Amino acid sequence: MDELPPPLTQNINVPISYSLPSPPHDLMQTQIASDIDWVSLLSAGPNFKFGNQNPSSTSKPLTATNGAVGLENGSTKHKGRVGRTKKTIPPRIAFHTKSPDDILDDGFRWRKYGQKAVKNSIHPRSYYRCTHHTCYVKKQIQRHSKDASIVVTTYEGIHNHPCEQLMESLSPLLRQLQFLSSF
DNA sequence: CGAGTTTGACCAGCGC
DNA sequence: GCGCTGGTCAAACTCG
Q: Which candidate in A28, A66, A143, A173 could, as Cys together with A123 as Cys, close a disulfide (CB 3.0–4.6 Å)?
């Protein structure tokens, strides 16, 4: 994922129907850049939702078990992910976003679980997981190797819960509706 | 004190 | 089989 996707024909402003609840930057110019699914996304039209292509991917990660093994000194030390199998590729969408900020405020809460230097890039790749306890969506964030002003954000999986930020902003309205509907 | 981040280590997959 | 690389874990640390 080092190269920009071939001849991107368009810049798009991500509408809310694309499940990016709040474009982090005004008139954010976002290019669909997934090396995997960007063609299907482009062809899917405005009703496309991330991950709709494969609803089964809301299931748990392939293997969540970790090996913690005893060391000779008596301490325990994890041995990384055990039993990892050849993984079926979940729906992945990547964006090229021109932004000084690495992290797009997409309305969901993310917890960083790793950072890694990647080959052919001076910029490290950061790994994030959705903090929602039943949600296993992941995203990777990396600056483009050739243009540091471009942030490549890759989403993997589907959120199985509403956007918290959106719900927060809607909650006063919902309360008002509930109140009014009680009459 | 809980939630989130940093970071070094570990593991699987892949190419040679 | 070996080395490289990407992805993940979890202890230690930071922050509010």
A: A143
